[in-house]
Fold:
Amino acid sequence: MPPFRWFAVGSADASVPDPGTQATAQSLLYDNPKLLIVFCSESLDLQPLVREIRAVAGDVPLIGCTTAGEIAANGPRDASVVVSVLGGDGFAIDTALATEASDDLRAAGAKAARCVPSREDLPRRVLMLLTDGLAGDQREILRGAYGVLGSGVPMVGGCAGDDLHMTETHQFFDDLVLTNSVVGAGIASSGPLGIGVRHGWRRVGEPMLVTHSGGNRVYTLDDRPALDLYMERLQMTDVALADEEAVARLALTHPLGLGQRNGEEQVRFIGGADFDDRSLSCIAEVPQGGLVWMMEGDAESVLSAADAACADSLAALEGHSPLGLLAFDCIARRSVLGDAGIETEIDRLAGSAPGAPIAGFYTYGEIARTKGMGGFHNQTLVVLALA
Amino acid sequence: MSTPAWSTQQLAEFLTAVSSARTEAAAALAAVEGVAEAFDAEVAAIVRGRELVAAVGYPEDSAALADLESAAAGAREPQVPVPGMGMCPAKAVPLEHPPGAMLIVARSGPEGLSRVEESLLRGMARATSMTMQMQRLLDDERAARESVERLASEQAALRRVATLVARLASPTTVFATVAEELGRLLSVDRAGLCRYDGDKMLTVVGGWSSTGEALQIGESVSLGGHNAVTRVFETGCPTRIEYLSEDSNPATTKARDTGGRAAVGAPINVAGRLWGAAVVVTRGREALPADTEARLADFTGLVATAIANAESHAELSASRVRIVTAADEERGRVVRDLHDGAQQHLVHALVTLKLARQALTKSVPDAGKLLDDAQQYTEEANLELRELVHGILPAALRRGGLRAGVEAVVSRMSLPVSVDVTDERFPAGIESTAYFVVSEALTNVTKHAHATSAEVTASVEDAVLRVEIVDDGVGSLRRTGISGLSGLEDRVSALEGSFIVESPPGQGTRVRALLSLPDRD
Structure:
């Protein structure tokens, strides 16, 4: 008889008393929990929330983060907490924490990656990372993790959010509420794991040459101030943007795309701008000397991508029924879909795996590495299917 | 995107990434990462013979070097293992620098690189070679510059220490300066100097803290436990340790309680013996650099002479003070003894003689008794003077030499003492110094040693008179304080000799004086 594995999800609105207690109680359906994954709104009182969860779950390893919205089986939510639990002898799970990530992002990724169990009886492995997307170039974190794990262990996860304030996100590790951190959970399973990655954006217009960039900032495109050319391409030169948050909201539906070998662009989320030097701030590096395109999407392309991502993840389960799905969904897609659209998206996710619980959050960046070395995405839906 | 446009873009991005590397090693890593990302490949590596220069795609420290070597060696359809994917097609292209190196890429899937991708890979190889070669030159230049700067810093530090010694600065000042120079040179949190005092004790003689906190100088601590000062004492060699939380030895807890996590220590040898140790301590999680032991040992080797000179100056000054004080005290004793002893008897003799004269003049029958009394007082005064002279320099020593003087001292002792002393005669200063060493040492044996026997030997070897007094008592004799040995050390030092006391607890005492004999070469 194969070892038992289980996955369950609980959720609670911030308006109820003890939302952490309620969400955790709902999720602890069976014995032998191995990992708690907590997604919650920045608007909740975080330390008391984590205490509530730990009071119910005890010393079960815990990772989690704040979001730009939460996803549960009853649909997308704001100002709520979602607690998912993996358990059973069919899972072996270890966790790791790297603090002060911005001091050395690569080292932080490496440290967070050193937690993937090696068990001959549990051959399917994945590293889940939850990062502070405001800490710097997320690709460096993944390079650090890749340097530890190599290509034999896929990676999945997302960047924490803060309800689009773009000020400070938080990550959770056991009793700790942190910022500027990377938390990792190494999962070894007796059953298959499937990862699907799709975005549904398409390029628009002629490419622009990245004539000057550094770190996460794009200073000039086609030798012109990046912010100015960007607004020109959007035909919004007469719009005076008030602050970085305004730029971020506008850019949600108009990301940049980097050309890939296989023809599909890698999307880059624009998190803000500097009104003094007219540069754009992205959540990962935009290589100088490269070509970028304006990207656009609509509800249909985004929803189609969601269907495809689900299908890809379920197809990797080799015919096994899914225990559940974890979704890391870019906040930008939510802006394209609108409130009704995101309900539809979650319904489609749930419909692809009837009866399987769903959990996830709206992210500032997504992590999915299954082939090649790269694994950081923007404006993308990443789905992890567990069997 | 068209293929040429993609190629151009990838090469542009690759050049940007590789050219921003600061060292040759960083350029190699940026190159393999850039290749893997550009080709959507899992594995990329630079291999040079049996050396893995850089690689991505394998778990930490487990690159498939043999397979990469095989691919680099020009196998017809090379394959390398891609973790999680099995054996996959690979492509290897040569690098111009480092000479003999190959850039290898492997991607999952049945197909290898297309012709366009191969062309791009060769372009990337050329860019990698140029960048690594340039960075190698810069690395070499940087290393040379850092070496020169380090040497200049060390020389400046030594110059500052030497200047202090030349200005006859006190040992306290010199030790504090040496500790500070060490701390700043090695960029550590704390630095200290300690002197080994025998009986497995040390004294902290100098210290420096990067935070400016005051340190306890002059404190004595017992050796033992897992710490740098004890390890240096036991081995006489540089050492590196991490403090253990369960070690309760005073030397360890003292370092650990001030936040020390790890330390490096090096011996300070003066005149061929282990004088003390220099220790640097770090609070941080990062290990002290691998060359810390060597740098610390080099610096302490150079300042050992300065430390010895500083102590010698101070000791010389103190010795002069002690000698002058001892001379004054001796003069005072002689004056007191003369006044209280011989002078009193002579005064009595004078008064008695005057009374005798008066008696003779008046034909009083007491005159004879008065003359007898005067004679007695005079003889007593003579005896007092003889004993006084003996205390200054005994007659047996003056007439019979060192052996006779020693035998005279031993004859007055109740403790059995064996004597094996040469009967050779020496210059007066050497004989008297050797005599007083034996006399004072045997006085300590009688008063403090609780010994059952003692042995006195004196012989000449290589133009050195070696005098040794050994007992089987309780040991723990100290050179200062009540033992009176510090005066002997001054006397021996004044003749440029050596004076050594070994007195471990419970193991008896050995006092040794080595006196150079002039005109014996």
Notes: Residues 194 and 313 of chain A are 4 Å apart (CA to CA).
